[in-house]
Amino acid sequence: MFDALKPQPADKILSLMAAFREDPREDKVDLGVGVYKNAEGRTPVMRAVKAAEQKLWQTEDTKSYTGLAGDPGFHDAMRALVLNDCVSRDQVAAAAAPGGTGAIRQGLELIRMAAPDARIWLSAPTWPNHPSIIKYLGMPMAEYRYFDADTRGVDFGGMLTDLDAAKPGDVVLLHGCCHNPTGANLTASQWQEVAYFLKAKQLIPFVDIAYQGFGDGLDADAFGPRHLAKTQPEMLIAASCSKNFGVYRERAGLLMAVSQDPAKTPLNQGTVAFLNRQNYSFPPDHGARLVTMVLTDDALRADWLAELEGIRTGMLTLRQTLADALRKRTNSDRFDFIAQHRGMFSRLGATEAQVEQMRQSHGIYMVSDSRLNIAGLNAQSVPVLADAIVAAGV
Ligand code: LMR
């Protein structure tokens, strides 16, 4: 049987992680995988998460199973974080999943079960694991224009033109905020236009929100999914806790199926719980429980908010410092878009050869499509990167 296996395509983000690890240069700079790093280059456990973990260790008296869809307390806390009071509890079916990716996978399986012919529309470009999972599941997919390579902003006209070819019942995958890999995001009024468009064309939004709090703030970053939840008959949301709670390896995420009609929720709930059972039975609990503790304890929540805000503003400062350094070196405003992008990533617009040159000459690692992780920078590496960008002729 094993002889029949074929090598699978390598994930470009994960291969880059391995290449970085093997590079012996001490001054190498990792701008690859989307993991937050502080000025010392570490990915610390957030203070409130550590405090919750300590409390949990003292108070947890069983490791017995939770519910098949996870802990309802986690659903409530995350529903409030992502959707605030835009919907009522009885409009949302929810299932905890192993990370945001797990929630995406479960959401796609729900779509395949309910609407096997629906096409999944993906932004061009998108996180490479989106098309990879969809292809693996054998589901039809299509692309809509999203990133304007000239302005490095959103090609909103192109987006709506392409989505005009979608058929009623098709699903549109949207990044809730902090678009990965580009850093270019819809404005509030564009979200409103998208909502109007989707409803008119009877398209179903599936929002992947993995960086809430990394862009313009927790509430501003959730504007899109909240507006959609208020206006669309139904939608799916995959929320990740990996980045904004820093619990990457714990795998904490939540799938939500939102319906205007609360009568639909019991069936939706039964379905997401069933899908959990088929794929892994009970979802991981540790990370989800820490997140719930942080969100429901006033002191822990306040501390988490303060730390998250520090992370967010730190990335904004790095963006501005890099844009300024490039302004100085190029005597132009060509790279100002870096300061305007939001979230962890920006797509620089370099060719693969230029990305490779930066890696060879300066030990700078970014994804081959020139996505760079802003949080991988610090005061020392910003000038190195700016020099490398200019030397590569980007
Ligand atoms: C990324 O885009 O770098 C992260 O979401 C990590 C991953 O799993 O690819």
UniProtKB/TrEMBL annotation:
Enzyme Commission no? 2.6.1.-
> Which keywords label this protein?
Aminotransferase, Pyridoxal phosphate, Transferase
Which domain of life does the protein's organism represent? Answer: Bacteria
Q: Start and end of every Aminotransferase class I/classII large domain? A: 27-389
Can the keyword Transferase be found in this entry's annotation? yes
Q: Which cofactor does it need?
A: pyridoxal 5'-phosphate
| GO molecular function ontology, one term from the record | pyridoxal phosphate binding
Q: Mind telling me which GO cellular component terms the entry cites?
A: cytosol
Single Gene Ontology BP annotation? L-phenylalanine biosynthetic process from chorismate via phenylpyruvate
InterPro entries recorded: Aminotransferase_I/II_large, Asp_trans, NHTrfase_class1_PyrdxlP-BS, PyrdxlP-dep_Trfase, PyrdxlP-dep_Trfase_major, PyrdxlP-dep_Trfase_small
Question: What top-tier enzyme class does this entry carry?
Answer: transferase
The record's subunit annotation is: Homodimer.
The similarity comment for this entry is:
Belongs to the class-I pyridoxal-phosphate-dependent aminotransferase family.
What is the protein's name according to its record?
A: Aminotransferase
